[in-house]
Amino acid sequence: MKILNLYAGIGGNRKLWGDKHEVTAVELNPEIAKIYQEFFPKDKVIVADAHKYLLEHFQEYDFIWSSPPCQTHSRFNTLLVNGRGLKPRYPDMKLYQEIIMLQHNFKGKWIIENTLSYYNPLIKPFEIGRHFYWCNFSLQGIKNIKNQTITNYKGKASLNKKMQAIGIFLPENIKFSGDKRTLINNCVEPETALDILKVAFKTKQKTLEIE
Asked: Based on the structure, what is the number of domains in the chain?
């Protein structure tokens, strides 16, 4: 099976998918892409605009997972605007562009993940934990297995607790010019992501081993 993992980050959703399948990950930030490649050396990692790559290559894959940037949709965005006086900004509508395009053109299974939005979603999603999911299969019965974000701690303690919460650990010597907590905050909880993939392909196996 050929899997396309868009806006891949460091691969929180990818962690439990196994290595049997051909996974292509697309990530715009070269530093983050390098970390992903270290975690998943067998995957093909492409440093590129995931939105553009999707439109040009979606027909080449059996399953597509997309996690477009969530900042302009999140409830936290409105808190910053109202609490800190930041200027309002347009929601990035690439999210809905991808949903509509895949709905009408892609024959395989697909899912798009984003944060809970401060507005009523324009297209009805499934809701699991603190995430919205749009897909062409049912997610009923899937639960958010762990609390993926812990915000009451600062500095290294916060990073360690966040890593423990989702089971993804960054090596001490890993190089990243930004805040490492961002890398973890942007991860989808791995067990939830695996359950989603199992439901998509109706397998009861503990790891993804679809013939």
From this structure: 1
Q: How far is CA 6 from CA 46, 81, 140, in A?
A: 10, 28, 23
In this model, does residue 209 exceed pLDDT 80?
no
pLDDT tens digits for range 67-86: 999 988 987 766 655 656 67
φ and ψ of 172, to 5 deg: -60, -35
Q: Determine, yes or no, domain membership for 12.
A: yes
Closest by CA position to 17, among listed 194, 165, 150, 176? 194
* C-beta of residue 135 within 8 angstroms of C-beta of residue 111: yes
End-to-end CA distance of the chain: 8
Q: Tens of pLDDT along 3-62?
A: 999 999 999 999 999 999 999 999 999 999 999 999 999 999 999 999 999 999 999 999
Judge whether residue 147 has pLDDT over 70: no
Region of 140 on the Ramachandran plot (φ > 0 left; ψ -120 to 50 alpha; else beta)? beta
Question: CATH number, domain at 134?
Answer: 3.40.50.150
Q: For the range 36-40, what are the long-range contacts, defined as Cβ-Cβ under 8 Å and sequence gap of 24 or more?
A: 36/8, 36/9, 36/10, 36/11, 38/174, 39/10, 39/11, 39/14, 39/15, 40/11, 40/14
Note whether residue 173 is domain-resident: no
For residue 13, give its domain range. 2-144+189-201
149 within a domain of the structure (yes/no): no
pTM for the structure as a whole = 0.88
Q: Is residue 154 a part of any domain in this protein?
A: no
